[in-house]
Amino acid sequence: MASESPIAQVPDPSVDYDDDLIYQQQDDDDGFEQDAIPQILKLDLRGVRMELDRDTLVSLPESLLIAMFPNGLILGRQDDYADDDYDRQAGDSQQRHPSANQQQRQFTSNDEDPVSTTPSSSSSSSGSAGQPLTHDDDMVTDDDDFQVTYVDFDPVCLEYVLRYYRKAQQMSMEAQQKRLHEQHPDDDSINDPIHNSPAYYPLLDKQPIIVLREELEYFCVPTKKNLSVPDMASLKLQCGQFLRQRDEIFAALQKSIARENNLAEQHLIDMLCDAGFSRNDRWGHRALEPTRTCIISMGLVLLKTTGPDNHMATAQKLLLFWRKPARKCWWDGNSEEINGQTVRLWARRTWTLELALL
């Protein structure tokens, strides 16, 4: 008995399926896929307006995109993606009370866009792929607000990544021009077996970047008891500032290695330092998260593929982390003097390692 399930059915090779949509190969330039994400995205990152083009967005590290869009990319309200019930109710209300409806829209727009009423936010800058949107009330329209996607992410961190991307692209272009200028017709280096390795192909025309991100959640245990809520909040902030100033990348992991003699962690540090980091490197970006006892740090470095040492073996290992972020988590605790009192500081550090190709 033949199965009616499309999963179990096997196509008959003697039948022409050209007219069957299931067996037709769809064109890569599908209109829906192209229009699913607009060419220019308008983002609002904690009050800072930024325009980011689609190509730059998809080239960002996976770990960064997950942090920016933990629930997926939900674009701002579009005209063709409006709620029919909402539009119908809004239309009826506008016909009955046009002036009141306009006032309500103005009030809602101000609530959804607090930046327009905050003068200090008007001087914020945008990323590499776009221009900052104006914060002037006269220039911001309702249609613009519908197109804006609100993102709970630090704009300074994103600007740091975009700035490093620009630097990496510039260095990659200069290296390619230099390589073409120095290459001779009788150069047999391309026939080297390591150049013919499949793992080497992405390194020929792409600029690899090592992306290391740390999420540090800290917990304060003061020796003094019965602290008031404002005093405890102030103590948490001071502890966060204390930890933020300790910005050496490998310092905490080195202490964990010395305490537990973990060879795997030592191998991780050796691999990262051989690939481009330095043992005394500091985080390129390190900042406290608002309303959270958490510190986010980012470190980016160009992957070494040439030099006196054999960096290609390490580079091939790190290619395994391309679009596949790996995480490592550990705890550490220390007693520190904060504002004249002894505080037990517990820190939960989560590292995310990834390789990005430009």
Write the layout of secondary structure elements.
Elements: H1 31-36, E1 40-45, E2 48-53, H2 54-59, H3 62-68, H4 84-96, H5 98-112, H6 142-147, E3 148-151, H7 155-182, H8 202-205, E4 208-222, H9 229-245, H10 251-260, H11 263-275, E5 285-288, E6 294-302, H12 312-318, E7 326-338, E8 341-357
Parallel strand pairs: 1-3
Antiparallel strand pairs: 1-2, 4-6, 4-8, 5-6, 7-8
Helix pairs in contact: 4-5, 10-11
What does this structure look like?
By secondary structure, this protein is α+β, with helices and mostly antiparallel strands. The chain folds into two domains: 124 residues, no CATH class; 165 residues, no CATH class. Helix content is 37%, strand content 21%. α10 packs antiparallel against α11. This is Phosphatase activator.
Features:
358 residues; alpha+beta; 2 domains; 5-stranded antiparallel sheet; 3-stranded mixed sheet; 12 helices; 21% strand
Low-confidence stretches: 5-10, 19-26, 77-90, 93-140, 193-199
Q: How many domains, as an integer?
A: 2
Distance between the termini: 53 Å
Approximately what portion of the residues adopt beta-strand conformation? 15-25%
Please provide the count of β strands. 8
Helix content: 25-40%
Shape: flat
**How many strands, which pairing sense, and closed or not: the largest β-sheet?**
5 strands, antiparallel
Task: Please work out how many helical segments DSSP would assign.
Answer: 12
Radius of gyration, whole Å? 27 Å
Structural class: alpha+beta
> Helix and strand string, N-terminal first?
HEEHHHHHEHHEHHHEEHEE
> If strands are numbered along the chain, what order do they take across the biggest sheet?
5-6-4-8-7
Let me know the average pLDDT: 74
